[in-house]
Write a structure and sequence with these properties.
- Helix 1 links the parallel strand 3 (33-37) and strand 4 (61-65).
- The protein has 298 residues and is of the alpha/beta class.
- It contains nine helices and ten strands.
- It is globular and about 55 Å long.
- Helices cover 33% and strands 20% of the residues.
- The protein has helices spanning 49-57, 83-98, 115-126, 142-145, 154-169, 193-198, 215-221, 248-258, 277-294; strands at 4-13, 16-25, 33-37, 61-65, 108-113, 132-136, 176-178, 210-212, 235-240, 262-267.
Length: 298
């Protein structure tokens, strides 16, 4: 087991500054590096630290960052989710880390969960300087995930999204929608989402629980499943058989589209189980095994 340090990083992205934590194992001159960020409406302190710590103890450097508008990163309006900007933030952090002298830029790995898992698959199909990717419960097909949205609430959610999008064009205050709610209109309305999401929230960090509604349309149109055939590097893919947010059929189809480069695992768990208990431990051990197989610690 390696001792490690954690240093703050501040990365310029457009006009904003991305806040990140750099976990660096001691006594390894140029470690491989894993770049991580959270999924939909998550901060880096929402259960991702436990992954980063274990990777660092195993001898891998880790960069764990918040998107612009979120957590320790700058930008307004706060807690805005923009798929375009978040993908840009990934590329900015990757380019920044690739230029650092104290890591092995030939061994960069991307790690994503839920929505960031979709981002990572998108990037794996596009970028040439990535050696492997690891995704857990990834968001792979917005069109299919939208079918789980209660049909009676969909028109209202789409209307609010449209109003927020148009209002933003003329500088109006954002119209927001709760990320989760036990009984009211929200982004993630499935039965297990309220208790599941609240189980990963860290109360020590500001999180309003509401985000600008404009992202609703873009989520529906975000479909990494369509481009993953271009991936030609090792992919670890962990899916939840009882995932209420990404239908398991979508995960299976995505995995077959990545073959023969994918190592696919499907476990008898729900979407948020992977952040807790036995499933968390199983995920970390599976990811470490994948890393040792394809990247290794020198």
């Amino acid at each position: 087991m390696h001792a490690y340090t954690v240093e703050p990083l501040y990365v310029q992205s457009g006009q904003e500054v991305i806040a990140a934590d750099f976990y660096r194992p001691k006594n390894i001159k140029k470690p491989a590096v894993i770049i991580m960020a959270h999924g939909f409406a998550g901060l880096r302190q929402f259960k991702l630290i436990q992954f980063a710590q274990r990777f660092a103890q195993a001898g891998y450097a880790v960069v764990l960052f918040d998107y612009r508008f979120w957590g320790g990163s700058t930008g307004h309006p706060r807690e805005l989710i923009s798929l375009k900007y978040q993908l840009e933030d990934w590329k900015t952090v990757i380019a920044y880390i690739a230029a650092k002298k104290n890591i092995d830029h030939r061994k960069m790995v991307l790690w994503g969960t839920a929505l960031s898992g979709g981002y990572v698959l998108n990037l794996a199909a596009e970028l040439k300087n990535i050696q492997a990717v690891m995704v857990q419960i990834p968001f792979v097909d917005g069109a299919e995930s939208a079918k789980a949205y209660p049909i009676q609430h969909l028109p209202k959610a789409l209307k609010l999204s449209s109003q927020d999008y148009m209002g933003a064009k003329v500088g109006m205050t954002a119209k927001t929608l709760p990320v989760v709610h036990p009984f009211s209109l929200c982004f993630l309305p499935t039965k297990d989402s309220y208790t599941g999401f609240m189980s990963i929230v860290n109360p020590d960090y500001f999180w309003s629980g509401e985000i600008p509604a404009r992202v609703f349309f873009n989520l529906i149109r975000f479909r990494p499943i369509q481009i993953v055939r271009s991936i030609n590097l090792p992919v670890l893919f962990i899916a939840a058989k009882y995932d209420s947010l990404t239908p398991i059929e979508s995960s299976r189809e995505t995995a077959t589209n990545i073959a023969p480069f994918v190592q696919y695992h499907e476990w008898n768990m729900a979407h948020f189980d992977i952040y807790h208990g036995q499933w968390l431990e199983k995920a970390i051990l599976t990811q470490l095994e994948f890393l040792h197989q394809h990247i290794g610690v020198v």
